[in-house]
Structure formats: C-alpha cells, structure tokens
Amino acid sequence: MPDHRLLRITPETHRVAIDLVYATDRNLTGKPIYKTAHCLLLAPAEAALKKAVELAANIGVTLKIFDAYRPPQAQQVLWDFLPDPTYIADLKRGSNHSRGTAIDLTLVDAHGHDLDMGTGFDEMSIASEHFHPGLPEHVQRNRTLLLGVMHGAGFTHIPSEWWHYELPGSRTLELIDNADSGPLRLM
C-alpha cells in the first residue's frame, strides 16, 4: 500500500519561498479557497522537491511555491470557476495536486524577486504554455531554467502551464481527501 502521508513544506525545513495563492484572493477565482496556508506534498514528491531545491541553489536561485497538495474539494471550486480541462483537471480524472504529487512554482533570484516568466501564475492563456513562441528571450531562458531544475529533480511538466510540475506516473495513485481532517482546510 502506498504511503499517503502528506509532509509539510516550510521555508525553514526546505529552503523555499512559499506564497500559497489559493489561501488569498490573488488567484483566478478572486477569493480565498483555503482557510489556512499549509504547503503539503506526498513523501516521494517531497523527496524530489528537496533535490530541486539543491539544483536551484547550485545556480543561485530559490524555488517559490504557489500550490502543492490540493484537496479534491478545492479542485471542485477551481473546476466550477473554470471548467476547461486545458487548465483545470477534470474531476473524473482528478488532479495530481489532489494526490499530493504536483507542485506549482517559480524561481526567485538572490534578491527575492520572481524571475520573469512572461505571464503570472494561474494566467490561463496560451502565453502560459511552456514553449509559447514569441516570448522574449529572457522569459524563454527563465522558463527553460525552471524546466531543467524540475526535470533534473525527477518531475515532469504539462504543456499548458509553465508553473506546474508533477511526479511521472502519479495518475495511478488515489486522491487524498484531507480537507476536513488535515491541516489544510477549505473556506
């Protein structure tokens, strides 16, 4: 039986910046979805994140996490707001965020500034595609840098969102319903 233990990620324990936008109104719905901002990942994803942190540190950048584990109920809120499988996982299929194996993030420079990725997090448009043509060279470089760090740590990407990474083969895992019993609670 797989380990469904969600591990807490903090700046102190993992040397990352955390800005869980779904605990704020700075997300695509315009309102908070989470009551509390706890960053959680399944143990294998947490181990891969640690590797990504090391790879990023080797090139002088830090990872900044926007979202990690997402209860299925939060996925429902997002789907109800934008029922587009290009950007939001269909509830029949389930999101790897709800399996604890997906993470949304960016890179931060030594001064604490987000690297320019050309679009904001959760901008559901074709310009958010990893390899969208016509973006400035420095944006392409930054996206490729993030891609290299995350692939080097064992994550894979989806084409439509430069910020989204997940463990390969995660779709075979069950969804983890932690909305009511765990530290991450919904609004």
Automatic annotation (TrEMBL):
<dbReference type="InterPro" id="IPR009045">
    <property type="entry name" value="Zn_M74/Hedgehog-like"/>
</dbReference>
<feature type="binding site">
    <location>
        <position position="164"/>
    </location>
    <ligand>
        <name>Zn(2+)</name>
    </ligand>
</feature>
<feature type="binding site">
    <location>
        <position position="97"/>
    </location>
    <ligand>
        <name>Zn(2+)</name>
    </ligand>
</feature>
<dbReference type="GO" id="GO:0008270">
    <property type="term" value="F:zinc ion binding"/>
</dbReference>
<comment type="function">
    <text>Catalyzes hydrolysis of the D-alanyl-D-alanine dipeptide.</text>
</comment>
<dbReference type="GO" id="GO:0071555">
    <property type="term" value="P:cell wall organization"/>
</dbReference>
<keyword id="KW-0479">Metal-binding</keyword>
<dbReference type="Pfam" id="PF01427">
    <property type="entry name" value="Peptidase_M15"/>
</dbReference>
<keyword id="KW-0862">Zinc</keyword>
<dbReference type="GO" id="GO:0160237">
    <property type="term" value="F:D-Ala-D-Ala dipeptidase activity"/>
</dbReference>
<comment type="similarity">
    <text>Belongs to the peptidase M15D family.</text>
</comment>
<keyword id="KW-0961">Cell wall biogenesis/degradation</keyword>
<keyword id="KW-0482">Metalloprotease</keyword>
<keyword id="KW-0224">Dipeptidase</keyword>
<keyword id="KW-0645">Protease</keyword>
<dbReference type="InterPro" id="IPR000755">
    <property type="entry name" value="A_A_dipeptidase"/>
</dbReference>
<feature type="site" description="Transition state stabilizer">
    <location>
        <position position="70"/>
    </location>
</feature>
<keyword id="KW-0378">Hydrolase</keyword>
<feature type="active site" description="Proton donor/acceptor">
    <location>
        <position position="161"/>
    </location>
</feature>
<dbReference type="GO" id="GO:0008237">
    <property type="term" value="F:metallopeptidase activity"/>
</dbReference>
<feature type="binding site">
    <location>
        <position position="104"/>
    </location>
    <ligand>
        <name>Zn(2+)</name>
    </ligand>
</feature>
<dbReference type="GO" id="GO:0006508">
    <property type="term" value="P:proteolysis"/>
</dbReference>
<protein>
    <recommendedName>
        <fullName>D-alanyl-D-alanine dipeptidase</fullName>
        <ecNumber>3.4.13.22</ecNumber>
    </recommendedName>
</protein>
